[in-house]
Amino acid sequence: MNFLELPKIELHCHLDGSLRAETIIDIAKKEGIQLPSFNKEGLEEKLIAPLECESLDEYLERFSLPNLVMQSKESLRRITFELFEDAARENVKYLEVRFAPLLHTLKGLDVEEVIQAVIEGMREAESCYEIKGNIILCCMRTMSVDRAFEVVEKGKQFLGKGVVAIDLCASEEEGFCHSFIDPIRLAKEYGYRVTIHAGEAGIGRNVLEAVELLGAERIGHGVFIKDCIEAYEIVKEKQIVLEMCPTSNIQTKAVHHYSEHPIYKFHQDGIKVTINTDNRTVSNTTMEKEIYLVNNEFNLGEEDYRQIYLNSVEASFADHETKNWCLTFLS
């Protein structure tokens, strides 16, 4: 298979983990922001997480630096545009980008301004390239429940205008779902779709609770359903789609080697999996690379890839017109 020419769908990609190093340097110079290095290679050493990370928390430390340059409307528009531009060059046809609006209010922007700027960057890219997209708003599990309500409320006006879903992300602790039942319930009442980071850091039961307590339609990562039979069974029975990110999962030590990644076993057993980058910069990856890695380990056949593409289209939070458009690229 020619992995670059394959049409691709990506459902799990973080905006703040996918900045070009050159862009960080350029914005920092314009805004007078101090960086540990103004050399591209030197900066990438600080941005890219090693495969030898000890944990998810160590991996997440790489996000503090990009956030320094994501505090103005102009920068947020530019960074979003460039992410979609990079994805389009990989032949990604549809991309769902997620970010936590509250992280970008440190210099005076309000949540609505942050969301609007990201949508504008996405729309500009859609007008320039053969790609379509939507936005997922993240609530940080490290913040209070009140802040989650704030994101849900302030993002509501953008539903149907670029925003499609809500997510919970950041450090994963056992039982986190219980704290966020009310804000996620409200989000669903407003019309948000629901995807939840769970089962990324060794706690398969969190996936079970994300589905049962929060009504998750998709799960970010979900690797550790392999160690929780109840979670495995509910994902399979309800056809909950897993947004899997192989390189990221190696870095966070969800698995230790690509050969141990459960993505292909899940796929063979009828669990709906999708292939994603998670963070293009932090994981030093692309969709082309992720597909290549899965193929290299598990000899992904054309029919396997076709099914994963179909899974991704069907599980996307896009409207029917966009889904049908994505299907036209399957030969």
TrEMBL record:
Active site per UniProt: E200 (proton donor)
Important for catalytic activity, annotated site positions: H221
Domain Adenosine deaminase: 7-324
Known EC number: 3.5.4.4
UniProt KW keywords: Hydrolase, Metal-binding, Nucleotide metabolism, Zinc
CDD domains, per database record: ADA
Domain of life: Bacteria
Keyword Hydrolase on entry: yes
Physiological role: Catalyzes the hydrolytic deamination of adenosine and 2-deoxyadenosine.
PANTHER family, per database record: ADENOSINE DEAMINASE (PTHR11409)
Protein name from the UniProt record: Adenosine deaminase
Species this chain originates from: Oceanobacillus caeni
